Structures are given as C-alpha cells and as structure tokens.
Amino acid sequence: MALGGALAPHALAQPGWLSAAEAKTPGGFALLHFLTADPAFSDYRPAIDFTATRIVFERTPASGGNTSLYLLSLATTKPRPFIQDAGDLFTGPSQTRPDWSWVNGQVILNVAESNTSPVEVLLAAPDGTPLQNVPESRGYVYPTWTPDGTQLIVYNDAEGAQPRPCTSLVTLSGSVLQANINGNDADGAAMFAGFATPTPANPRLIAYAGQPKMPWGATTQVAYNQNCNYVFLNQQQGGVFTSFPLETEASIRAFEPAYQGRAPVWSPDGNHVAFESNRAGGYAIFLANVAAGTPPVQVTDASYGSQHAKFFPDGTRLVVTALQVPGREGPRGIAWVDITEYL
Q1: Contact indicator for 233, 246 with CB cutoff of 8 Å
Q2: By three-state DSSP, how is residue 228 classified?
Q3: How, if at all, do strands 230-237 and 240-245 pair?
Q4: Interior CA angle at 174 toward 232 and 264, to 5°?
Q5: What is the rounded CA–CA span in Å between residue 219 and residue 223?
Q6: Which strands sit side by side in the sheet containing 151-156, from one edge to the other?
Q7: What is the pLDDT of residues 210-223, one digit of tens each?
C-alpha cells in the first residue's frame, strides 16, 4: 500500500534486535522476542513508528500508580519518558492509548487526571513535545489516525454519542465528520463499538470490537461489555453503514465465546486483520486473511496473554504486549513476533 506523503514508511532495516533466529514455543506458536521485561513495571499498548526503530508504549509501576507513555529507541533498548514539558497544554498524569501516524510522524494519545478519570485527546510530536489538545474530545477513547494522517477514528463514549459508545470520524480541530460509522447489523440492531481501526484505503471502512445493542453475553442488560465483543467489519452503501462479524459463522443474535475478539488492526496492505481473543483459554493474537476469507489462525501461545498487536510497516512482524512470565498474571513487557509463515 502506498501511504503517500513525505514520511512514507521506509523499508524495514534489520538491526541487531531483529537478528534472533525465529523459533516456536513448546505449543507450536510463534516465539515472542521481548524488548522490555522489567518486573518493576508493566508495559502495555505499544505503537511503532514508520521507520520501525522506535516504539511508544504505556508504562505503569507494578506497585501501582498512574500510567505514562515511554519511548523505546530500538538502537539503545532503554526506555525513557515520552511526553516533554507542555507549557499551557494539558498532558495529564495519566497518558494512554498511543497511535503513531506513518504519514505525519506524530503521536495521538489519551490524557486524563488519573487512570480512572475521563479522557481527552492530545497530539504530540515524534520527540514527545505536546502540540495541541484536541478540542471537544472529552470521552474520545482510543484515538487512531486515518491513513492519510489528517483525521482521527475514535471510540466515542462522550455524552450524546448514539449509541454510546460508537465509532466517530473527527478532525484535529474537534469537528465531527461522521458521528457513527458502525451503523446497524444485518438484523437492523444498532452497534455498540469499541477499539476501531480504518482500512488502509478508506477511513470510513473499519474493523472494530463491537456487539449489537441488545441483551448480549450472560446478561439481559443492554449495555456495552468489552469482554463480549466480536471483531466486526463495516460496509457502506448509499451512505448507509452495515456491520458484519469478521468471522461469518458468528451469531449476531446471541454471543458465542468461540468467536470473541477485540483490538483489531489492519495490515499495511489491507489483506489481513490481527486481533486479540481469549477463545484459547487466555488472550492470544490471531491473524485473519480477510482478502482470502479464510478462518483466523492463532499466532501466539495463550499462556503469554498477548494483546494489542500493531503491525510493523513491512507487514511481516507484530509488536505486542505480553506477560513477562507465561501463565502467571503480573507485569507485562513489550515484544515482537515474526508472522511471515502465517501470512
């Protein structure tokens, strides 16, 4: 895919941190190569830059406290705090959910007074210098760049979202271009929607974690439950959006845990979607060949609880968060995994 612009992705170099021989876990899944694994911290939600040499991620002290963003230069493999002095901008003691544009080089993220406070959106330069707070962005979660680096896809949990939450397309000036790009499912039920990412070719066509607005999962309550999502894809025809499960066998009338999935992300060429699912007994990364329409394949061992995958610019590797000690809930690290044989 040609992203265009002055900062189009470079061909992936092969620095020393990518030199480890690929291997399998005892379960036959791809090996995780850890870049951070400090028991004093838990590292989460990585995002990689267009040169494939820097990763920004969330870091939370294992003893507790607010989460802040750190930058890992893969030349030094020593993380440092990412956000710099802000002047009059609000950077918040809690900094989460980064996304790195491969076109403009900037990072978009959530900021808040604490890890449990309502969020808003902050734009930062590649070196962590804050550039602007996005106006009217309170309640916009998981801000994600559109492919051309000019607009944002957001999980809209703000008052007035219909339904709440849904996916909205917004500008950096706070204007809402499309209030709801999820639409209804094939039965006409409105869609609750979480983490969403646009296809490389069209910012209004997305993969997202969602569920119909109806009694769902093990409860009769009509409310969004992030643990009972499928990965959905939307379609647009005549200005109307309709959403369908990525896995076409999944029922849209009752939740089926065998198809649970969330945090989807598109490959740079638009052929694959990587997502996390707990269907294997713990969270693992799965890869679906959307172009071929074949069932998803499991990439990582569920004992590592891998989540929040992002593709490298060349599409052959993922960066993820995973448990530092497999099978034991505790601090997480940032790791990369080679997915060449799964493509």
Answers
A1: yes
A2: helix
A3: antiparallel
A4: 20
A5: 9
A6: 140-145, 151-156, 166-171, 176-178
A7: 999 999 988 888 99
Question: Over the stretch 62-86, which tens digit does the pLDDT of each residue have?
Answer: 999 999 999 999 888 799 999 998 8
- Interior/surface letters 9-36, b for 16+ CB within 10 angstroms, e for the rest: beebeeeeeeeeeeeeeeeebbbbbebb
The string of DSSP codes covering 47-78 is EE-TTSSEEEEEEEETT----EEEEEETTT--
Report domain extents, the chain: 28-133+300-343, 136-266
* pLDDT per position as a tens digit, 227-272: 999 999 999 999 999 999 999 999 999 999 999 999 999 999 999 9
From the list 251, 271, 269, the residue with the least C-alpha distance to 259 is: 251
Sign of CA dihedral 82, 87, 92, 96: negative
Q: Please provide the DSSP assignment of 100-127 as one string.
A: E-TTT--EEEEEESSTTSPPEEEEE-TT
Q: Pick from 206, 259, 260: which is nearest to 234 by CA?
A: 206
DSSP state at residue 202: -
How many CB atoms within 10 Å of residue 210? 30
Residue environment code for 281-311, b if the CB has 16+ CB neighbours within 10 A, otherwise e: ebbbbbbbbbeeeeebebbbbbbbbbbbbbb
